[in-house]
Amino acid sequence: MDGMPPKQGRTLDISASGLSLNFDHKLGTGDVGTVSFELFVEGKAQVLTCRSRVNYCIFSGDHFKIGFQFMNPDMATMATINKFLR
């Protein structure tokens, strides 16, 4: 998120409009930052980066489930995500 050092999470789910992560740290709803994630498409790893907004942050046991909504992703990012989702 903006103003924070990079953090790592584990992807739970992805859609054309966003993704959900397991995360060790709490984030506030409405926080905005850059999210980078890796997808395997056609046998190749592709790292995607997109500005995103936190839609929800739910404490679940020893971690947080955080939902991010993509903000104006570029066409190449959307094409890769759509290819992955097929």
TrEMBL record:
Pfam families: PilZ. Residues 9-85 form the PilZ domain. This is PilZ domain-containing protein. It comes from Duganella sacchari. GO terms for molecular function: cyclic-di-GMP binding.
